[in-house]
């Protein structure tokens, strides 16, 4: 049996090349197949050909709320793909939002929200939880 | 049209109605501040009535107040209502314009006096002076508010720009400390190298920010003298040579070795540094950067052309704003402060000059900066 067929695929979307590098190294080491995209447009191109098992999306990309838009589009395309949104916005602006209640998830369209900088153990816990569910 | 509310407090009804008639048709154009002022007449026959009126209708813009009233006096009214009349201009109407009452009233916040009996002309003059004072104060308040808003926006963006490298560095450090990226030491080494690069760019952002704010505030000490342009261009090119070599980019300088102008060498070097650094960063492997300088009379023209990624007209239009960095597939992974061109533009404006850009996507960009030599006598005043 081909081992790579067992691997779960994660799509990482962020306009910060270092963030992609960090998470790609960690997810790869943890045994995942990793795809990356530097913006929402390329992420959608990837999604046109492949169904990843999970997406990690940055909130602030080329347009300030591109992460929200991208989440919406991923969920519209396939509601069963879990999406984790990563952001540093809450600290800076004082705007507070979360994705813990059903009502919040319904407009944010993300299954979990994490603050930057991301600690891999914490991110991996969310990934494991969402891939089980 | 700016309509100011005038409350007239006088126990003599014929004075109130006379003032009312004058106010009705009165208008002052203020062409220098682009405003026209008209008035709304409101009245009260005693201080007690005035207090009630103010409580019900909010404080007026101008209070025409008779000093001698039955019951509570004009001055007592001012003292009692000090807090609610903080933004109201008070003009005292009095038949006894003694120095003593004038001093007392001014202490209680009166702005001007009108001595009884007064003509409509005298009333108009006092009102014109008072309204100009009010309108200018209002505009100053609006401006201050706008500046606070701009400052808040600038600080929010700045906070984001400073957070981005810190997030990347902290993220990498977490990975290295938690050892969550597998067992290949080369991966961890690369992470530390990237941490260093982000820290360096963070420092550059802070230096650029200080340069920009110093230039904007006019606080920067300028060392004005004769500046040799060819030497400054060479210095700036040498600084970028390492980065250029790493990607096989050649830098050429075409400049009369004797070309010089009067100015601050540090400022002119900022222009070259930022333009040459951009020309290298946004270039293609094996590309070229051509620096050309020419002078005529008191003008120096600097052109920095590259064979890089270029940009669309839409992108070019927003390029000179603070923290604007063009984000697309071609610029992905290129680091910068987003302040370089804002600095170039600021410096050019100090020399009565400007920055011009022509760019073709995928072929390259050419930035032209025109600087006027400073006058030596003016320069001495600046030293």
> Terminal Cα separation of chain B, in Å?
47 Å
Q: What is the approximate shape of chain A?
A: globular
Most extensive interface, chain pair and sizes? A-B, 28 and 28 residues
CATH topology of the largest domain in chain B: Heat Shock Protein 90
Distance between the termini of chain A: 26 Å
Order of helices and strands of chain A: EHEHEHEHHEH
CATH structural class of the domain at 1-89 in chain A = Alpha Beta
> Oligomeric form of this entry?
heterodimer
How many distinct beta strands of chain A?
5
Full CATH superfamily name of the largest domain in chain B: Histidine kinase-like ATPase, C-terminal domain
- Counting DSSP H or I runs of 4 or more residues, the number of helices of chain B is 11
Question: Can you offer a commentary on this structure?
Answer:
The complex is a heterodimer of chains A (133) and B (383). Chain A has a domain at 1-89: Rossmann fold (3-Layer(aba) Sandwich), CATH 3.40.50.2300. In chain A, strands 2-1-3-4-5 form a 5-stranded parallel sheet, with helices on both faces. In chain A, helix 1 links the parallel strand 1 (9-13) and strand 2. Chain A has helices at residues 17-29, 40-49, 66-77, 89-93, 102-108, 120-132; strands at 9-13, 33-37, 54-58, 83-87, 112-115. Chain A is of the alpha/beta class and 133 residues long. The two termini of chain A are 26 Å apart. Mean pLDDT of chain A is 82; it is low at 91-95. The longest helix of chain A has 13 residues, at 17-29. Chain B contains 11 helices and 13 strands. Chain B has helices spanning 13-24, 47-57, 74-80, 99-107, 120-178, 185-217, 229-246, 265-281, 313-317, 340-350, 376-382; strands at 2-9, 27-30, 35-44, 62-66, 89-94, 110-115, 224-228, 250-254, 260-264, 288-296, 299-306, 354-360, 364-372. In chain B, strands 2-3-1-4-5-6 form a 6-stranded mixed sheet, with helices on both faces. In chain B, strands 8-10-11-13-12 form a 5-stranded mixed sheet, with helices on one face. Chain B has a two-stranded antiparallel ribbon with strand order 7-9. In chain B, helix 6 packs parallel to helix 10 (340-350) and helix 7 (229-246) packs parallel to helix 8 (265-281). The model of chain B is unreliable at 379-383 (pLDDT under 50).
